[in-house]
Structures are given as structure tokens and as C-alpha cells.
Amino acid sequence: MTRWMKTVAVVALGVVGCTQEQKPAAARRAELKAVSGSTMEIIPAAGQYPYCMLFTVSEKGIIRQLTMTRENRSIKCDAGKRIYNSSFRVPVEEGKVKAYVFFSDQRIQAGSVAQQLYDLRDKPQLTAMDFRLPGSVSVETLEFTPQPGGEPVTGAVVGTTDIEGSAEGSQTEEAEVEEPGQDMAPPKVTPPPNGGGSGTATATDAVK
Fold it and tell me: Does residue 118 lie in a domain region?
């Protein structure tokens, strides 16, 4: 290689490097805010689809559905307002979690999303293309590591009930939700049998 060709190659590599460094980071579809050591809130950004649902997957493989409703479908999510109008407590003993926010242009059933999350549990990065869901869907992945201690969040805690997973070894639970002003546990509903497990789920209404 001649000296002139070497010079051109060095300049070209420098241009590529500068282009990569100046590439803007992709805008987040939602923001995660730590309220205390083990409690978080998730706030949608502007310009997202109007409906959403929220799941967490822990390092131990436990899947939690944080936006559970009687109909078990997506809820209305407004930009700038915390999802479910609530804070969520993550058990410290479960370690770091990935929070998956599914934004959609229509209400979608949560059951199939939980199953697909379990099926994709070994994939390090997930996008909307990995899921078989109706309509237009986008996915935001956020991470949260709960820490012991911190000031408790004011408000009643909605208890959790284990739900048997539809696949052996999987576990899906309703998250602990902090809802200020609520002093009664929500009614219990028993989902119809679907051949993949049974149990009693604690459900709450979607925030209007």
C-alpha cells in the first residue's frame, strides 16, 4: 500500500469514527423514576401510542404484570403521567429487573404478552418485532435495581397473589402497587381455565 493510500485510509476511518460519535441517542419512550430504594414510577414520554401495559422480569426469572385489570388488557396511558397512577415496589431479594412497557394503538390482551415474555426469557434484548401482537406496538425496556431501606411511600399497598405460570418453571405475579388514598383491597376474580394453569388473581380497575 502506497503512502498516499495509507493517508486516505486513515482519513476515512477518522470520518467514520466522528460520524459514530455524533450519532444521537434514541429518545426514550418512557422514563423510570426511583421513588425510594425499592420503589419506582414509570412515566410515558410524549408521542406514544395511547394504551400501554407494564411487566417486569427479574434476574430470577419472575415475571410480574404491573398493570393488571379485571379485563386483563392494556390500560390508557397519558404522556407525563405515571403509569397506573401508581408507584411499584420491587422485592429487593429478586435483584435487578427489566421493565417492559408495551405501547399500542389498541387494547391488547396481557396473557399472551406474559407467555411470550417467558418464551423469550433468554434473549438479552427485546423489540416489538419479537412479539406477535395485533395492531401497532412499540416496546421500551428500562432497568431498575432495588435497594434496601429508603423512605416508605405513603398509601395503602395492594397485596399480591401468585398466579401459576402457563409453562413449567415460569411464574407470573401481580406487582405490589402503591395507590395513595386507597384503603381497601380490590375484589378477587378467578380467571377461566385455559389449560395452562389455574389460580386466583387479585385484579384492579384501570385508571381512567
Answer: yes
11 dihedral zone (left: phi>0; alpha: psi -120 to 50; beta): alpha
Average pLDDT on 87-104 reads 94
Nearest Cα to Cα of residue 84 among 192, 196, 182: 182
Question: Which three-class secondary structure state does DSSP give residue 167?
Answer: coil
- Integer-rounded Cα radius of gyration of the chain: 21
Domain range for 100 is: 27-202
CB of 33 within 8 A of CB of 144?
Answer: no
CA distance 47 to 66: 22
- pLDDT(161) > 60: no
- Rounded Cα distance between 42 and 55, Å, is 11
Structural domain count of the chain:
1
On whether residue 162 sits in a domain, the answer given is yes
Supply the pTM of this predicted model: 0.66
7 belongs to a structural domain? no
